[in-house]
Inverse folding.
């Protein structure tokens, strides 16, 4: 199995561990990832706020490169990149004017895109292409007894709900069940972490993170797993600020889901960049039966 | 539709918003909003907003969209898309918020206490400069110009992230970063031609 791979900008900085663990985990599953040549920022939510057509055009440059590389499936790990790239495809298909404008902009730099590259979230690939049975077969350290809170975040399946339900997604629950973990009932799993609001209106974002952390703790979670660099950062790194604001004492390990899954699939912890987490994950690693 | 917009700018904003929304795929659905409030009830930040999403559409109908453009509402939308997936009329409310953000930036009607517009603008600049968003540069620039106090509050966490190798000081410059500027220039020229 082979896919083109779009890491996204956070994967070079705050979310570096997501990129490292994705590559290591996918290799264990015999999935080959070929990084997209000279990819650019998807534009995320910020670009839409400034110019709409430009945001589609810069996202489409990546899709044009994918088309040029001759592969029609692009694996994306960041929720925001996934939604932005998939939304670009959707709007190009739905609106001839958007299609024409984007084609024109790409043409101005000698590129072309016909709208046919499939933008795939990594979880979609794991559950629907690799398959949970194949995943289970490759487990070398079952996550028996590890209580996992699967945190999906917003743009995992909203707004499009292409491969999972926008209100009640279950793919990550099923994926971790296949790895042998005890997946807790986590009612906040699709609520917002605040995103970039952590920088512009911190008390609002901390309020959201407080609820996410509290419901995970109330559900008995040993670890929260995330599928988005921004979600992971807000939930993990801002626990001291949540504690200060709410008088709580959260110190919950938060991992990229690929890190915990990598451990179950036999990747060494040092190949999963677990040392980059700011809340220590040692007790999670120690609790996984050998 | 009742036209209550009084000043020339309010009228222009109303007309521009109406035009832009109607040119979005499915934009005409704004007409069938029944003011049920599912959007506001689903919004994780509506409690902080001057006008909730339901009121945004009510204000538009009343010819008062200029008040919304100037309010804190649009800068508190986190793009979580809850309103969009739950709206029984299929109105893409998140996209309406983006449209309002674009109008606010275009007409320079930014609330004084909101830091979000600056962050948004710096983000776009960083992407055009490097081809990718350099998170460290973005945060440093944002804190230096908009919130020096935040730099102090962030210092401890920043050091932890830096030590963990999560704040690389150098940006990655892609080879084709000129392409982004050229595409933007092309689209701006096309828009100018159309008007």
């Amino acid at each position: 199995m082979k896919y083109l791979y779009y890491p996204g900008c956070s994967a070079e900085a705050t979310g570096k561990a997501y990129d490292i663990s994705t590559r290591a985990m996918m290799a264990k599953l015999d999935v080959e990832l070929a990084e997209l040549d000279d990819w650019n920022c998807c534009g995320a939510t910020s670009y839409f706020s400034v110019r709409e057509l430009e945001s589609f055009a810069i996202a489409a440059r990546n899709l044009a490169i994918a088309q040029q590389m001759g592969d029609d499936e692009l694996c994306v790990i960041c929720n925001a990149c996934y939604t932005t790239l998939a939304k670009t495809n959707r709007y190009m298909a739905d609106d001839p004017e958007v299609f024409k404008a984007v084609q024109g902009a790409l043409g101005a730099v000698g590129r072309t895109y016909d709208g046919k590259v499939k933008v795939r979230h990594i979880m979609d690939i794991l559950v629907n292409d690799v398959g949970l049975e194949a995943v289970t077969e490759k487990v070398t350290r079952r996550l028996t007894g590890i209580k996992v809170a699967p945190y999906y975040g917003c743009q995992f399946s909203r707004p499009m709900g292409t491969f999972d339900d926008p209100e009640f997604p279950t793919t990550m629950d099923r994926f971790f069940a296949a790895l042998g973990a005890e997946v807790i009932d986590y009612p906040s799993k699709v609520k917002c972490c605040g995103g970039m609001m952590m920088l512009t209106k911190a008390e609002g974002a901390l309020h959201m993170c407080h609820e996410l952390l509290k419901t995970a703790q109330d559900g008995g979670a040993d670890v929260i797993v995330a599928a988005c660099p921004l979600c992971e950062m807000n939930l993990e790194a801002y626990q001291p600020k949540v504690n200060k604001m709410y008088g709580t004492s959260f110190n919950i390990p938060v991992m990229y889901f690929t890190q915990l899954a990598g451990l179950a699939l036999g990747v060494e912890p040092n190949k999963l960049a677990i040392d980059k987490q700011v809340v220590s994950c040692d007790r999670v690693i120690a609790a996984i039966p050998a | 539709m009742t036209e209550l917009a009084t000043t020339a700018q309010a009228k222009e904003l109303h007309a521009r918003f109406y035009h832009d929304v109607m040119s979005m795929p499915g934009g005409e659905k704004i007409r069938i909003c029944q003011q049920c409030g599912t959007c506001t009830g689903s919004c994780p930040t509506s409690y902080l907003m001057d006008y909730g999403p339901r009121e945004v559409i009510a204000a538009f109908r009343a010819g008062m969209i200029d008040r919304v453009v100037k309010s804190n509402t649009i800068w508190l939308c986190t793009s979580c898309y809850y309103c969009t997936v739950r709206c029984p009329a299929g109105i893409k409310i998140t996209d309406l918020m983006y449209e309002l953000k674009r109008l606010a930036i275009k007409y320079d009607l930014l609330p004084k206490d909101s830091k979000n517009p600056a962050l948004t603008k710096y983000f776009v600049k960083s992407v055009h400069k490097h081809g990718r968003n350099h998170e460290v540069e973005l945060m440093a620039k944002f804190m230096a110009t908009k919130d020096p106090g935040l730099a102090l509050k962030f210092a401890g966490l920043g050091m932890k992230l830096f030590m963990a190798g999560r704040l690389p000081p150098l940006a990655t410059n892609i080879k084709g970063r000129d392409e982004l500027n050229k595409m933007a220039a092309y689209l701006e020229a096309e828009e100018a031609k159309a008007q």
User: Anything to note?
Assistant: The radius of gyration of chain B is 19 Å. The mean pLDDT of chain B is 91.
